[in-house]
Amino acid sequence: MWTRRKGSAPRPRQEYLARDKLAWLLVMQTLLVLPLLINLPLWLWLVWAMAGFWRTQVFRGRWGAPGGTVKTLLTLLCAGGLLASYAGKTGTETMVGLLACTFVLKLLEVNSARDAQLLIFIGFFITASQLLFNQSPLAALYSLGCLLILLASWRSLYLTSAQANGPRLRAGWRLLWHSLPIMLVLFVVIPRLGPLWAIPNQQAAKTGFSDSMSPGDFGQLALSRAPAFRVEFIGRDTPPPPSQLYWRGLVLDSFDGRTWRQRDPWGIAPKVKDEEPLTEESVAYSIILEPHGQPWLFSLMTPQSTSAPGNYRPIRITRDHLLFNSVPVAQRLRYQVISALAFAPSPPQALTNSERAAYTRLPQGSNPQAQALAAQWRAEGLSDQAIIERVLNLFNREFTYSLQAPVLGQHSVDEFLFTTQKGFCEHFASSFSLLLRAADIPVRVVVGYQGGSWNPLENYLLVSQSDAHAWTEVWIEGEGWRNIDPTAVVAPNRIEQGLDNALSADEQNLVNSNWSGSTLLYNLRLRWDAATFVWQRWVLNYDSQTQEGLLSRLLGGTEAWRMTLWLIGLGLLGAALATWALLRSHQSPALRPEIRALQSLERKLAPQGYVREQGETAGDFIARVSHSEPRWHAALSIIARLFEQIAYQQQPQQLALLREKIRRFPQA
Amino acid sequence: MSIRSDWRAAWQRHFFRWIDKRVPPARQISLNRKNLYIFPNRTGFLYLVMTLLIWLLGTNYQNNLILALCYLMVSLFVVAIHHTFANLSGISVRFVQATPAFAGEAASFVLELSTRNRYGCENVEIRWGDGEARTLTLAPATPQRVSLQVPSRQRGYLRPGRLLIQSHFPLGIIRCWSWLNLEAAALIYPAPVAIDEPQHLASSGREEGGTSTRGGDDFSGLREYQPGDPIKHIAWKQFAQHKGLFTKEYEAYFSAEKWLDWHNLNQLQELRLSGLCYWALHYERQQIPYGLSLPGLTLAPALGDYHLQAVLKALAQFNLAREAGYVD
């Protein structure tokens, strides 16, 4: 008892988490991990369900916490699973899988505040990974909700008093709400850098067409409403006419009897020189391309120059007037193009012999009927122009446009031309090209999109997957490549008004779901897409160029001195606001209501020269005033009695009366 | 003691000297921006590293939403500074009293904390130097008393040094703290040490023969019961014999009272004081009146808590010339 004690007392440790804190963590984790699991292998779902169940059982006191052996076993199992799912891949998904695995397993052994803190930190990464997979406004909103729960449960970790869920959520919201303005300023002002090192290609969802075209490919695309890209025309509020809206993606110039392919997919020679001088009819536009997992980009004929701010490697323009990105487009990409809509008037160089051979090459023995037909025309001594017209006439007379084309066999063009006579763009493009090639006219198939729907709310063109199209380009001697769309002959509506108008009522139902006829829903869809466009343009593709534009518009310039002045000004303003808010919300003394009521009486008496002294009680003060002002005696004594009843006799119901008396003072 | 902790101690001394000039000692101190210090803690730096990693992720993937998340984390850090500060700012700490203790025991200091903060204060940790730490929650407009134990080493006045008050609330990444220089001291009595009973020269000392006085040990007779007489002195035997209610009277002689006389001991000063303390406690327990005689101070023999405390206080304060005892 009286021996000397050495050293300091041990600090109390918050070793075990209270149950309410744990419950918040559980909810937080579930919310955060749910959208990720969609992109992750199935076994992670099982691990998650198991960990969640076990944790809940521990929480309810039914089961014990997992021991060291179990934990090691689980870790090994998950490591094996990760290895099996992602072996050899070092991409984003591996990272996210590892992260999600850690997050889920960590839950099993969260005991102390320190563990929980770590879980919270991983939570931020999990939120970031959510945004890696989906960047739609809804996804962003969901992530914001996740952050709210994250903050509320983070703050809960350090609570020392019991608090209901509502106040916890509100406090979390307060943290988030106070941070958002600073975040916005940082988002607008902080300069953007390019990627610091090359990142492994993300396995993007490959939508759209592939680098080949076989019968039936486009029918599937036509059913998809997914957006392909959105185009904003610079300096004009209306789009060019539909007949000019051919978004070229890829040139297919090699035919094996059934499938059209790129002859030499990676031998894309860069454009030799700016052959075509810019004509007066050029158009500048900016495209936000949805990631399609392919390197090619889309542009109108013929792209003259292109730029993609924030894209750290330039976009190439090939000899075929195509745009190619240096890597497959895994992220939404924004680029600008200036295209000449009309061909240059000067006659281009003639095709070399090898080029001519390549553009007229056909596999031996394929589609014999079609080849014979073309040979017969050629024998009749028809000119190139006449042959083209004859094919188009043929299509116009005897063919119908339909998405439900019959399945075609090995000699697909023969079957189409002479048997089924029913098909859509790729059938027409394919058979047209074959006939022309058989007649020794250089021709190539172009795939891309045609048209798009104009959104007047934000003045942009939405091009969907259902606008996917195939057409041909024919070499006309002395003129160069010319755009000829055989589908336009059969179904001019397809070109002029889009897919929906080219189809019969039956097929429209195939393409659209039942409700698409409603005007209201159409307008809603228009609005939603406009919102998506604004989101993409201002949030997802906010880059250094947009930044500079916005800043110079807001601040009147982007010189260093101007920026500095604005920053200092904003900083001072922010600091002042923050201080004011703090002083107002936290430092206002919590006064009892009757004292506050009495203060208003003091304010009324102060002009008459009666000021409550330091240390003078309310009773003394009222007695002093009523002593020297007998006319107020009655009113003041009532007030004094009421005040005492409330303050000292626990009669808070008199408060209203006291306020009323003070308000009506000096009447009794 | 490692070099690091040496360095730390030196730095703290320097720091305390600096804040002494800024914040003079007082019985009541309110926390505000003059005496609150704020800095990220280790978790805070880890948080910043996380923010940097997320920035890298966002930059490398050219993902504006992830960059926005990174900026949100940065602004959360800034906001956390404000919130942590606001949690402590507006607290006032008042020293109420300290209970005395024997040297080597812990003295407890009673503090009253209140806050002007509308939301109250969460997770406020207070601690005297190396004493015990307490974590409290302050409700708005409700003062709260805490008593903190501080170990004592030697008799005299125990000044517990600076009071650390700190909080990491709400996010645990920012530490806000203050070292309060409270005017607080506890009286520490000498530790009781059993030594030989001080030889008292009672009979030879003062009044010869010894005059009897009431309240002693020896039974001297019966008298009629008067209201207020102690029950244990009632003569139950006579009462049982139906002779009436009587009170037994006792007599004490001066010769029976003890003197705690400094001069009759020949140990070192501190051991003498400890011995006197031991015997004072012993006599008090035995209900033997005792007086205290120190150089320059004499307390007449008596009994009771008040007397005991006066004696112990005299022992505690003996020869404390170098330090003025300004607090009781």
Give a structural overview.
- The complex is a heterodimer of chains A (668) and B (328).
- Chain A is an alpha+beta fold.
- Chain A has 24 helices and 18 strands.
- A 6-stranded antiparallel beta sheet of chain A has the order 8-11-6-2-16-15.
- In chain A, α12 links the parallel β12 and β13.
- In chain A, α11 (384-398) packs antiparallel against α13 (425-438) and α21 runs parallel beside α24 (655-664).
- The two termini of chain A are 68 Å apart.
- Residues 1-14 of chain A have low confidence and may be disordered.
- Chain B has 328 residues and is an alpha+beta fold.
- Chain B is 32% helix and 32% strand.
- In chain B, the strands form 5 sheets. In chain B, strands 2-11-10-6-7 form a 5-stranded antiparallel beta sheet. A 4-stranded antiparallel beta sheet of chain B has the order 1-3-5-8, with no helix packed on it.
- In chain B, a hairpin with a 4-residue loop joins β6 (121-128) and β7 (133-138).
- The longest helix of chain B is centred in the N-terminal third of the chain and has 25 residues, at 64-88.
- The interface between A and B is large, with 67 and 65 residues.
Largest sheet: spatial strand order of chain A: 8-11-6-2-16-15
Structural class call of chain B reads alpha+beta
Structural class of chain A: alpha+beta
Q: Measured on Cα atoms, how large is the radius of gyration of chain A?
A: 37 Å
Described by the principal axes of the CA atoms, the overall outline of chain A is elongated
Q: Number of DSSP helices of chain B?
A: 7
Query: Which runs of chain B of at least 5 residues are low in confidence (pLDDT < 50)?
Result: 202-215, 324-328
Across the major sheet of chain B, the strand order is: 2-11-10-6-7
Oligomeric status: heterodimer
Task: Please outline the major beta sheet of chain A.
Answer: 6 strands, antiparallel
What percentage of the residues of chain B does DSSP assign to strands (E)?
25-35%
Cα distance spanning the termini of chain A: 68 Å
Main β-sheet description of chain B: 5 strands, antiparallel
